[in-house]
Automatic annotation (TrEMBL):
<dbReference type="InterPro" id="IPR011463">
    <property type="entry name" value="DUF1569"/>
</dbReference>
<dbReference type="InterPro" id="IPR034660">
    <property type="entry name" value="DinB/YfiT-like"/>
</dbReference>
<dbReference type="Pfam" id="PF07606">
    <property type="entry name" value="DUF1569"/>
</dbReference>
<protein>
    <submittedName>
        <fullName>DUF1569 domain-containing protein</fullName>
    </submittedName>
</protein>
Length: 149
């Protein structure tokens, strides 16, 4: 499984982001490309400790039992539910969101994996740096595939 803290895996994600355009269309889901980028940035904020949404009751009850879906080799399901605070509904500007996400990926590299241990995932709870790294990559990969890159 690829890990966002691996330099070559992060570089691959950055290159895929560069292949997006304002005209990129989703293969599933309701978000346009700018909203998807903003959604991914909002998720990065959680991983980086810049946002800490409340844990849901369902997450508290079952999150630790199902958390391997976040970092295992199986692709994320299309149209699966998301953390309510990172569901993007407002219009976003493509270039600004693209640059913000790229800078966050670079910041993750610079800050290191240990920074992700400061906050639990709002559904899955406490994760190791390796689990965060795999999960972040998997989430980005899921949404980049959603837009064909």
């Amino acid at each position: 499984m690829k890990n966002i803290f691996n330099q070559s895996h992060a570089k691959e994600v950055l290159e895929r982001i560069d292949h997006l355009s304002p005209n990129s269309k989703p293969q599933w889901g309701e978000m346009d490309v700018a909203k998807m980028l903003a959604h991914c940035s909002a998720f990065q904020d959680i991983a980086m400790g810049n946002a800490s949404p409340q844990r849901s009751w369902s997450g508290i009850l079952i999150g630790r039992f199902v958390k391997p879906i976040f970092y295992n080799d199986k692709p994320l399901a299309k149209n699966m539910s998301t953390i309510p605070t990172i569901k993007i509904v407002d219009e976003k500007e493509f270039e600004a969101e693209k640059e913000k996400l790229k800078q966050q990926i670079i910041a993750l590299q610079n800050n290191g994996a240990q920074k992700c241990m400061e906050r639990p995932h709002p559904f899955f709870g406490k994760l190791t740096p390796e689990q965060w790294g795999k999960g972040i990559y998997k989430h980005l990969d899921h949404h980049l595939k959603q837009f064909g890159v």
